[in-house]
Amino acid sequence: MASLLVFDFLFLFLIGQANSSHFRGGILSWRPTDANPPAGVLPMVEYSWRISFRKSSGMYCNRTLIDSQTLMSYGGALTCDRGCFQLYAPLTYVCTDFSDLEDWTTGVGRAEDLPAITSFDALYPGSAWITLNNGGGDWILRTNVNLARRPDNGLINSSPTTSNLPIVRFQKNCYTRLVIPVSDADDDFVRCRLADAFNDECGGICGGLDGTELLDEDTCTLEWTPTGNTGWYGYALQIEDYITSTDTIPLSSIPLQFLIYVFDGAAACNAKPTFVSPTPPGGSCILVQPGERASQRIVAAVSDPSRSIVSISTVSPVGFTTTPLQPLPGSQQEYFIDVHWTPLSSISSEEIFCYVAQDDLGLTSEQECIFFVMSATPPKLIQVEPVGDIKLKLVFDQLVQRPTLGLANISITSKASQTFVYTGSTHSSDFVFDNTEIVLLTVPSGTLQTGLSYMITFEGGAVTTMTSCGIPNPRQDFSFTVLGNDKLLCPGDITTNAENGEFYVTVKWQPPVLPDGITAKQVAGPPSSSVTYPIGTKDTIQYVFITRNFTTFVCEFLVTVGPDPHPCPKQVQEVILVGGGGAVVSWKEPVSRDNLLNEPPYPGSFFEVGMHPLCYHFVTVTNDTASCTFNVIVKEETPCRDHVCGNHGTCLPLNVTNFVCVCDGCYYGEKCEKEAHVCNQSRCSNGGICHIYEGSCEQFHCDCPPCFYGQFCELSVDACSNSECQNGASCLPYGDSCEEYTCQCQNCTYGKYCENEIPDPCSLNPCRPGSSCVKLPETCDSYVCVADDDTSEGGCHDQDIIVVENPCNSFPCRNGGSCILDHSGFICLCREGFGGINCEQTSGNFLDLCENSKCANGAECLNSFTSHSYNVTSGQYTCRCMPGFGGVDCKNSAASFPGDDTCNVHNVGCHHNGICRNTYTSTGSYGFICNCMIGFIGQLCDLETTDPCSSNPCRNGATCVSYNTHFTCDCIEGLTGPTCELSEDNATAPIIDNCPGPMIVKSTIPVAVPWEWPKVTDITGYPVPLVDANSAPEAIHEPNSSINVELVYENLSGIRVTCSFVIVVTADVN
User: Fold this and answer.
1) Beta-strand (E) ranges in 434-551?
2) Most buried of 30, 51, 279, 609 (most Cβ within 10 A)?
3) Does the structure show a pLDDT above 60 at 1046?
4) Where does the UniProt annotation place the signal sequence (predicted)?
5) What pLDDT band is residue 870 in, cutting at 50, 70 and 90?
6) How many other CB atoms are there within 10 angstroms of residue 1060's CB atom?
């Protein structure tokens, strides 16, 4: 069939003339002019190329030729290979960019052809490369064209596209990273690989660079630290598109070839230029409209004002214009160019623009590329749906994803108060993306209130489209109102697959959420929202909830678990120190595989530096044999690459991240940046800091840390040198402190400084009439009561000893409080939220003394209240020490200070496996408490009792916790009440019936105005108590008086309602 050729100009990449040595690289891509032609008809194919040559070889280009878009030719043609012969397209081009500094020019071109077959190769061969360190001679650009319809959408595929500078500069012995920009019109997954000599894809530059470079195929990123010869290297890649990231057979393949120049530089590796704002970050997508002029400023900076930027080289689409390089006004280190472009409707929908800055030392920045996108619509927020009071379902007008560049803020403002209630970023875990139109935002509990309106603000770039170049959203405000949840929120069906060939998958989901105001008990459904299933499972999950009125809520969804379609390991990378030569690498092998067919190295094998492709054969779930490939990469890294030691210091790597500088002469510091002086000789002891006197390298003084003094900080401060311990108490320093100490009391004294004497227990007259108190010897607060009767016959004195009852045996401490003895009285140790002599008061009614307590060594602080037999009460805090500690605030080790171990000194024996714990009360009292096992109470756990939780008093899945004879219920999230019977978000107010109306009474004398108390009911069925009133039915009212009666009721949820009416008594009886 005769070929039809239409010549035009679009993208090209620098390629040289046949039979010359001036080739600088190129790109070749294609697309069908109609992706969905009639059945049986092949479409026209449009070929696009970019070729680059040495400018001084006759490939002249200037701004006039670029602006006029003059069609040029330098010889050579695109031809057909492998199954075809009719294609012949001269490679004409339009010049787009040039560099006088590096002597190159580049341009783009296009041709159309009607093929005769479905699959073939198009290629551009020639000769020859510039003299290279890694080959040279012939070049060949080969692209594979496949016009068969795709299996996923039935359309004809288009190849990927790319761009790159013709020459990329690498400084010797410096790490350099090069990101290859790629774009795909079908939004396919794109990989880059080395061109293969076996497929005749690379001419004379096959095999990469020197073998030490690393190519990340998935991200198309080249990393290399050249250590060999300086000069020219050729690099050939094939860029391929796949329907999914797990596919192994590409849809198409296009070439990218360019030059790398390695140079020897005296400057530091991290001294290269950088791009600064307002330059977009590399990889940014910029939306432009056909026919409208787009502009962008590119700004490069040097780190040293003594240096300058000498060029910003670009590779542009047709029609781009750039202004000359000039300094940025007001800056000594920044230089810029302005880029302008008016896209035409006939141009491709996505164009790549790349740029590199070079300074006067020959150092270059990393190449950065941005994407200009036409005929695209940015994502727009169209709906905000509150889900309960902590989640928002954000619905966009198209598929969106989390952005990969930049950081855009999202804020929520209350319209009522005009204040921010939430700020965050879509990069945070608050936002859940599932690659659909929906993004789920979780805000802290209490952020949103039912019935209130809010404004959510998305800054530009908070989300992007799912296309290969994600289009960012514009700034947008959206209003919404939290109306509450009026229906059961149930998870949807879940479908997932195993990974890495595993046979089991753990599936998680959000539990169902009941409608607002509904309290129900779950009577059916899994106990957990995370279940591990074997592959092949199809499980119907059903939750059933029943309210007190027997209303039923049912949630049902299907969980499907499939096998791993590609049970292959991911890419494995091991980073080692430069010079290591290789590493032992391990990975997780496929679970299902055929050992008879596998011959790759096994996990734990040694691999040399570089990239090593491996292949596994495995048996699929349908018993078919398949294979998968992955790469094992051993990458060398050194921290000395970017960390240069100053003042002629030598950098020695310790590992891949840490280094040490060996400094020369009189320098020191992490990077040898400081000059040595007398203080380097460790003149100051005990952590003192040495400072030299100004103008001297020999005179110094020491700044001493706490607890030390003297010329060299050699003298220490004794904490007990000025102690306030009294009454013969011993002073002991607290830990390593030179300021804090403890007093070890003697002779029946107590207090922080042992300043108080323990009262003689008999001075409190604890014995009943007819008996006398006798203090027991060698004790401070123990006594017995002896009967006074001495009239027994025979002259014998029968002394009746009256046993004093233990005041803790009456269980005086309420609300789960614990009782310990205090002389002849007791101390109640109250649980958090309670206080008072008997722990009968709730929060707000007492001072929380634990707020500023000093309980140490993990001791628990409890508000405690003392009640003595002589009716004196006081509040303090008590430390319940961890085992092995005692003394003031539990600061002392029982092993070091055995006198502080009350449990051991008094030989306390807690019954029934109870555990004795030392206590210290802030008034200076030492004691103990037995922590009893379940079923036992009493000071020594000597009384058996029924567990108050045995009757299961707590409702709705709450946990019952017993404290002696009391219990409390720990409610699950969202419930409250004494037995967890109420919902926290229940905003239903009590209902008042029969609230009296206005009353006017005529009387000349004081009179009672009778009225009936109103009836108040609550949705929970619990009584609603009266909490405040300013009058009563029996109240007497004076003549000529009036009162606004207010009766306030409050339910268990804390919601108050008021009954209000007026009573008027007038003396005017006419």
Assistant:
1) 438-442, 453-458, 464-465, 476-481, 494-497, 504-508, 520-524, 530-534, 538-547
2) 51
3) yes
4) 1-20
5) very low
6) 12
In terms of DSSP bridges, do strands 892-893 and 885-886 run parallel, antiparallel, or are they unpaired? antiparallel
In a domain, 961, yes or no: no
User: What confidence tens digit (pLDDT) does each residue in 674-696 have?
Assistant: 776 677 666 788 888 888 777 56
Residues whose CB is less than 8 angstroms from the CB of residue 703 and which lie 6 or more positions away in sequence, other chains included: 684, 688, 689, 690, 691
**pLDDT level of residue 621 (50, 70, 90 thresholds):** low
Within 756-877, residue ranges assigned H as helices are none
pLDDT at 248 over 50: yes
Nearest partner of 519 among 10, 980, 958, 878, judged by Cα: 980
pTM as predicted: 0.51
Q: What span, in angstroms and rounded, lies between the C-alpha atoms of 179 and 586?
A: 28
Domain match, 792 and 818 both = no
- Whole domain around residue 555: which residue ranges? 496-562
Task: Please state, as a whole number, how many other Cβ atoms lie within 10 Å of the Cβ of residue 973.
Answer: 6
Q: In which residue are the tokens 């229940």 written?
A: 986
Q: Are 954 and 979 in contact (CB under 8 A)?
A: yes
Instruction: From 269, 1066, 986, select the one nearest 659 (Cα to Cα).
Output: 269
810/965 Cα distance (integer angstroms): 11
Give the type of residue at 717: V
Domain membership of residue 730 (yes or no) is yes
Residue 929 shares a structural domain with residue 1036 = no
What is the count of structural domains for the chain? Answer: 10
710 and 728: one domain?
no
pLDDT in tens, 712-750: 898 888 888 778 888 888 887 766 677 777 777 777 776
pLDDT (tens digit, 9 = 90+) per residue, 789-805?
Answer: 644 333 333 334 444 45
Q: Label the pairing between strands 801-802 and 783-787.
A: antiparallel
Question: How much is the pLDDT for 167?
Answer: 96
Residues 131 and 58 in one domain: yes
Same domain, 110 and 225: yes
pLDDT at 312 exceeding the cut of 60: yes
Q: Is the pLDDT of residue 773 over 50?
A: yes
Residue 563 has pLDDT above 90, yes or no: no
Give the CATH number for residue 281: 2.60.40.10
Q: The CATH number of the domain where 1043 resides is what?
A: 2.60.40
> Do 943 and 953 contact (CB within 8 A), yes or no?
no
At residue 871, what is the residue type? N
Q: Sorting pLDDT into bands at 50, 70 and 90, what band is 869?
A: very low
Maximum mean pLDDT: which of 198-212, 791-805, 955-969: 198-212
Copy the structure tokens of residue 338. 């302005």
Residue 971 within a domain: no
DSSP assignments along 593-624, one per residue = --TTT--SPPTTEEEESEEEEEEEEEE-TTS-
Q: Which among 904, 863, 897 is positioned nearest to 880, based on CA atoms?
A: 863
b/e string for 561-575 if b means 16 or more Cβ within 10 A? bebbebbbbeebebe
Cα 328 to Cα 308: distance, rounded to the nearest angstrom:
11
Would you give the end-to-end CA distance of the chain in angstroms? 122
> 3-class DSSP state for residue 552?
strand
Whether residue 529 sits in one domain with residue 505: yes
Same domain, 390 and 353: no
Co-location of 517 and 533 in the same domain: yes
Q: Choose among 720, 723, 722, 725: nearest CA to 750.
A: 725
The H or E element containing residue 414 is strand 409-414
Question: Is the bond into 343 cis (omega within 30 degrees of 0)?
Answer: no
